[in-house]
Amino acid sequence: MSSKSLKKGNMLSKTVIYLLLAVASLLSIFPFYWMFVMATNENSAINSVPPAMIPGSQLVTNFQNVLNTIDFFGAIGNSLIVSTITTIGVLFLCSLAGFAFAKFHFKGKNILFVAILVTMMIPPQLGLIPQYIIITKLDWLNDLKAVIVPGLIDAFGIFWMRQYISSNVPDELVDAAKIDGCSNFRVYWNIAVPVIIPAFATLAIIKFMYMWNDFLWPLVVLRDESTYTIQIALRGLIDNYVKDNGMILSGTFWATVPLVIVFLLLNRLFIQSLTEGAVKS
């Protein structure tokens, strides 16, 4: 096979790959675009056949209806508080635990790690009642602490950090730091943390999105409207008698925007840290 035909084949394969990626990107973006279209149209345009496929002129009106129905910005603020504090706590605590499991040797380490992995297989609904009893005894009902504290540790986060630290933080570097007199925490902070920034970014995206979208547990422990997170507040847009799809999708659309912003910011950090956060020999 000549080099010319080989180059032609490579160009064709690249073209096919780019086309597939373009189609996949459009399919991924379309639900968000469709939600935006419905958020800018009236019910008549949304329910028509075929439905409206281009943005309408009701974006401000629909959002104003959202503000008149629920405390949208208050709920957004509560969700930001819950998601941000929980994400920071998970990054710190899970990376500490992952570092211990990856680099320390202690009795029962493997058994304890397996026990943590087993908890990932248990549906969270099974722990709802005992968790609710604990929160009630602590008198944390209708308080954001009831949502923040139970989310500060995450089995997947420990597993993810342990695997990443095991493969990216050399044992020789840890041993050299200990020989130089570094404490365990200083080894973690000065040696491990700069290396695991990509893992931080990935776990932050997963945890922030999970806490932002969590509905069941906040619904159980938050009863007062002033403590509602955004997912609980959006439930108030649904009326039993009149269904305003434009208003509902407007609230949903604007509640999704912070997620997209956080994802884009952390995604950039993830890509940047791949090139700048490595251990240099």
Automatic annotation (TrEMBL):
GO terms for cellular component: plasma membrane. It is a multi-pass membrane protein. The keyword Transport applies. One of its GO terms (biological process) is transmembrane transport. It comes from the Bacteria. The chain crosses the membrane at residues 12-34, 72-99, 111-135, 187-210, 247-266. It holds the Pfam family BPD_transp_1. Keywords: Cell membrane, Membrane, Transmembrane, Transmembrane helix, Transport. Residues 76-266 form the ABC transmembrane type-1 domain. SUPFAM superfamilies: MetI-like. It is found in: Cell membrane. Its main location: membrane. Belongs to the binding-protein-dependent transport system permease family. PANTHER family: ABC TRANSPORTER PERMEASE PROTEIN MG189-RELATED-RELATED, SN-GLYCEROL-3-PHOSPHATE TRANSPORT SYSTEM PERMEASE PROTEIN UGPE. This is Carbohydrate ABC transporter permease.
